[in-house]
Write a structure and sequence with these properties.
transferase, ten-stranded mixed beta sheet, 307 residues, binds 1-O-phosphono-beta-D-fructofuranose, binds adenosine-5'-triphosphate, alpha/beta, UDP-N-acetylmuramoyl-L-alanine:D-glutamate ligase
């Protein structure tokens, strides 16, 4: 089973504005709302790919209730943990004239250590050895900076393979517990290392160092340029299909979902990376944070190449 954890979920409100302008009145042409937050997105995409995943999320207030209803309607299995306060609404501004995607993410409610402890306990009761646990997204206020490290240690000790997709201090502290797989994008990894990772070679070198440091699989996504995969036996540079982009929100989550499904079904490495790149690009073609249909993912697979 693939379990995902979203400590700071969001209702994603995607608004479409042509020629988005600062200091001016902008008129919204269309909008849509999706249940979001990185882990929830991973579960949605695993299910859309035909796999099986359950999401665990901290939810609060009417926005939290709305997210739960939307996931129920989509038949997504959710373990909801109530927190005080209101789950955040994240605004995504898509400008199809200027070809920009702008994220305005709220901080979300403050959670308590008791909220986190009871959720972790339920997760530990659920997981079996070899299960995959995906920890992704920002930490809510109130969560200690080393929350992911604590959770990785506990889930790894229970025999699960932990995937970590986070950034900043939460990511750096999480690395200390040696998750099974990490999927930073090149900007997040570059920020951590204090240098630009703008070529395949630079990304490969950085990923190799992390593998030598004890992370089994390092996947660095590079937006429209694809991704670099490194483990102790392989270095693969994969190129994603060129597609017409509707919204890049959730592309990274789609890649993580494909990697989790591939690991859960013991997929061959080439097939795994073809699926991951096709799923990422198919997501870029969708508006809002909605998973791409399986048929679209399948049709893009033949355009994935290896450098
Ligand atoms: N413009 C694009 N065209 C085609 N494919 C894309 C594009 N942007 C992203 N992708 C696909 O999605 C994958 C992940 O993208 P990216 O590196 O932007 O992830 P990310 O920054 O973690 O995303 P996010 O944080 O928005 O979820 C890429 O490896 C690629 O397969
Ligand atoms: O603020 P975080 O937790 O870093 O990211 C949250 C978020 O931007 O990530 C998802 C896309 O990856 C969205 O569904 C959600 O709004």
């Amino acid at each position: 089973m693939i379990y995902t954890v979203t400590l700071n979920p969001a209702l994603d409100k995607t608004i479409y504005v042509d020629n988005f302008s600062l200091d001016e009145v902008n008129r919204v042409l269309a909008l849509r709302e999706d249940p979001g937050g990185k882990g929830i997105n991973v579960t949605k995409v695993v299910e859309a790919l035909g796999g099986s995943s359950e999401a665990l999320a901290l939810l609060g207030g009417s926005v939290g209730a709305r997210i739960q209803q939307m996931l129920d309607a989509a038949h997504i299995k959710l373990h909801a943990f109530q927190v005080a306060g209101e789950t955040r609404t994240n605004t995504k501004v898509v400008d199809e004239v200027r070809h920009t995607n702008t994220d305005i993410n709220e901080p979300g409610p403050t959670v308590s250590e008791a909220d986190l402890d009871s959720m972790l306990q339920v997760l530990l009761d659920l997981i079996c050895p070899q299960d995959i646990v995906v920890l992704s997204g920002s930490l809510p206020a109130g969560a200690p900076a080393d929350t992911y490290r604590t959770w990785i240690e506990a889930c790894s000790a229970a025999g699960a393979r932990v995937f970590l997709d986070a950034s900043g201090e939460a990511f750096e502290k999480g690395l200390e517990a040696k998750p099974h797989l990490i999927k930073p994008n090149e900007v997040e990894l570059g920020a951590m290392l204090g240098r630009a990772l703008d070529t395949d070679d630079k990304v490969v070198e950085a990923a190799r160092a992390l593998v030598e440091d004890g992370i089994s699989c390092v996947v660095v996504s590079r937006g429209g340029d694809g991704a670099v995969y490194v483990d102790k036996d392989h270095v693969v540079v994969a190129r994603s299909p060129k597609v017409k982009v509707a919204s890049t929100v959730g592309c990274g989550d789609s890649v993580v979902a494909a990697l989790a499904l591939g690991a859960d079904t013991s997929m061959e490495l080439d097939d795994l990376l073809v699926l991951a790149m096709a799923t990422g690009s198919a997501n870029a073609m969708q508006s809002g944070t909605q998973p791409a249909p399986l048929e679209l993912v399948e049709s893009l697979k033949e355009q994935v190449t290896f450098a």
